[in-house]
Specification:
Layout lengths: L11 H4 L21 E3 L3 E4 L5 E3 L15
Antiparallel strand pairs: 1-2, 2-3
Length: about 70
């Protein structure tokens, strides 16, 4: 059973830490520390342990990364 979705997403300051795959940088897997990734259109998956991360994109609604990395 899915949790009900709110029509008003939480402000970025209340969401907590969001781990993103950054295409122009060396990315380490938060699960195993590996650096080999299978990159798709919307996410990247660790080659070693299959942890999936969303891709950093300026088009992702609600996720702002300006000046924070």
């Amino acid at each position: 059973m899915k949790a009900p979705r709110s029509p008003h997403p939480a402000p970025p300051g209340q969401r907590g830490f969001v781990i993103l795959y950054r295409p122009a940088e060396t990315n380490r897997c938060p699960g195993c520390g590996g650096s080999h990734w299978w990159v798709g259109r919307t996410s990247a998956e660790c080659h070693h342990c299959q942890v999936a991360l969303p891709l950093m994109s300026p088009l992702t609604p609600g996720i702002t990364t300006e000046g924070k990395y």
